[in-house]
Amino acid sequence: MTTITTSTDTLTRDALAVLQPGFVGTTVPDWVLRRIGEGLSSVALFGRNVAEAEQLAALTARLRAERPDVLVAIDEEGGDVTRLEVRTGSSFPGNYALGSVDDTDLTRDVARELGRRLAECGVNFNWAPSADVNSNRDNPVIGVRSFGADPALVARHTAAYVEGLQSAGVAACTKHFPGHGDTAVDSHHAMPRVDVDLDTVHARDLLPFRAAIAAGSKSVMSAHILLPALDPHHPATLSPRILTGLLRGELGFEGLIVTDGIEMQAVASAYGIERGSVLAVAAGADAICVGGGLADEGTVLRLRDALVAAVRNGELPEERLADAAARVRDLADWTHRVRGASGPGAAAQEGTAPGAVKSAPVGLVAARRAVRVSGEVTPLTSAPYVAAFTPVANIAVGNDTPWGVGAELARLLPGTETGSYTAGDDGARAVAAQVVEAAGDRTVVAVVRDVHRHAWMAEALDALLAVRPGTVVVEMGVNEAEPRGAVHIATHGAARVCGEAAAEVITGRTAG
């Protein structure tokens, strides 16, 4: 049994300190402020908490009025996974687009500008970048969130992203350790299993994490995956071998270890969130991410009480909890010092130097460079009909963020209409017939996403091209399928800015 030497108050404060909870609403609930006063050191923001930049800045200012060094975390990858621009789509292309360009200076610049915008809104901790090597082409949850399938490419861009983000005073959180790229299951729904040998893990999956650690990443997020070559019994989030033995010991990481969302089914369905949290901290995790789904005070109290009880009954060493809480506070202190050193508004604005010609935002520059065109484009001069073949979005991306090219084409060619088409019982030819009927004599722009993963989409696209061979095809997912159509435009992601870049190609006009 562990001998308890701290007071209940200190123990409770430590238990609260390791939690990173979310909440509902665009203002801070009273219960969050109360718990900050009792020791809560971090909060997590999601798309539901963001209406616009001024509102977000006011929200974070209210948090800092309660605790100046509070960690304000967000899942802002840019690209498909955006919280700052959840209702409009991101101004930044995601990792897959940046990896396709393969210019580490550009990746660093994009991450720096994204970090600047986060810092301007009072956010100081970003659960990004994804360092996963997308080695499984059918991966349902990573895909365009990865820089690519080449470990060396992923490693150099992960390092550049970490450097750019942290140069803006925002702590990076490199994820999902030890690598979620070779999975066929989404850990939001069930436990993925990666059956590869230890040599493959080191040569492929760990390479980007080594690069991130060398670049000074302040945090690493664990994955809810079972990797028997490292630990046949525990998922990474709950594995002492992986978090303490590998990440701390072998890789020498000294920063904050954060779990992926503890309420995700890969952990919650097998262990429950209370036991899962205790096992994660015991294994070496320093912070528990919770709140993507469970965003209420009761959840925070349940996890707090479970951690306190585990210390009291000897299941969780008191020193381990105290060490975890200290690491959270150390990171909070770093962000507070960096913020104080730079001062509000110190970060440079893009294209605002006196007398300078205003340049395109770096996100649009990157999206333009990521576009790949097959075939000869004849710019459209009249409004087309956009047929968006829409797969089910994974939870990380969500259904709230618009994607495609319809809105961007409508700005350049007023009168553009968009229809959405999904897998149904009528078959591919019926889908194609519906598109042709809706389009009339207008040019069809068919927008697809990860077409190699969706048989219905590939069949419907082929059926459409058979009757309308002049259709322009825009692929906004991972480009594993062969280009289809007389004109094929690959954007390497579905962010709004990727749609802008594609619309520019289709019309021969500049979007902005």
Question: Helix content range of the residues, please?
Answer: 40-55%
Average pLDDT for all residues = 92
Assembly type of the chains comes to single chain
The stretches of 5 or more residues where confidence is low (pLDDT under 50) are 1-8, 343-356
Please give the alpha-carbon distance between the first and last residues. Answer: 65 Å
Largest sheet: 6 strands, parallel
Estimated share of beta-strand residues? 5-15%
Number of helices: 18
Keywords:
six-stranded mixed beta sheet; alpha/beta; single chain; 512 residues; 41% helix; globular; disordered N terminus
Question: Can you walk through the features of this model?
Answer:
With 512 residues, this protein is of the alpha/beta class. It is 41% helix and 11% strand. The chain is built from 18 helices and 14 strands. A six-stranded parallel beta sheet has the order 2-3-4-5-6-7. It has a six-stranded mixed beta sheet with strand order 9-14-13-12-10-11, with helices on both faces. β12, α17 and β13 form a beta-alpha-beta unit. α1 crosses α12, α1 crosses α13 and α10 packs across α11. The longest helix is centred in the middle third of the chain and has 25 residues. The N terminus is likely disordered.
